[in-house]
Structure prediction request, 205 residues.
Amino acid sequence: MSFSFFAVFSKPFDGAAALASAPGLQKLHVYTPDRAHDPFLHDGAPPPLVLQFYFDTLALLEAACDGALHPVMGLCQVQAMKVLSFAVPEPKDPQCTYLVAYEGKAEDEKAWHEHYLAHHPALMARLPGIRELEIYLPVEWRSGPGWRRAACMQRNKVGFDSAAALTAALSSPVRQEMRADFKAFPAYSGAITHYPMATRVWRRA
Prediction:
């Protein structure tokens, strides 16, 4: 199991490279807006930047918040989450990622997650051309004051070689199956955002 720290910026930020040296950081995904066509959804303009930091333990993530990641405090909304990784036929670092955030609440959160995890990942893993599939669940985390905390009930991502590959996957019959499963989800209210994002992956040397 690993943990991710999401930092969602509302304004451009050019200091991502310096943050890649955070102690304990395994890899960093840098997301910037891309363009892909979704036949079902259009959630408006994506954030100008999302950073996703990966750590092996929650303790390392918390230490980074109090140290190397401190420069972004107050500049973005942040959330610590547990990473659930799922196998795909041909894994590879993605060049384009569809970032999804469930910002609202389910009437019965436990039942909602159980249904989602039992049905949806198997469908997503069949999207043509998929390179990466992860789901994120919130965790309690400690830090000093000053962080602007997000409270998404869940986040997901599917990664592809390009925006064109993402567009093709979103237009595939598998996506039709995903929409049918979505309609069977337990009761939920609130926003769900879907953003195509160009992706750079920096790994620990």
Notes: The chain is about 20% helix and 35% strand. Residues 2-203 form a domain with the Alpha-Beta Plaits fold (CATH 3.30.70.100). The chain has a mean pLDDT of 96.
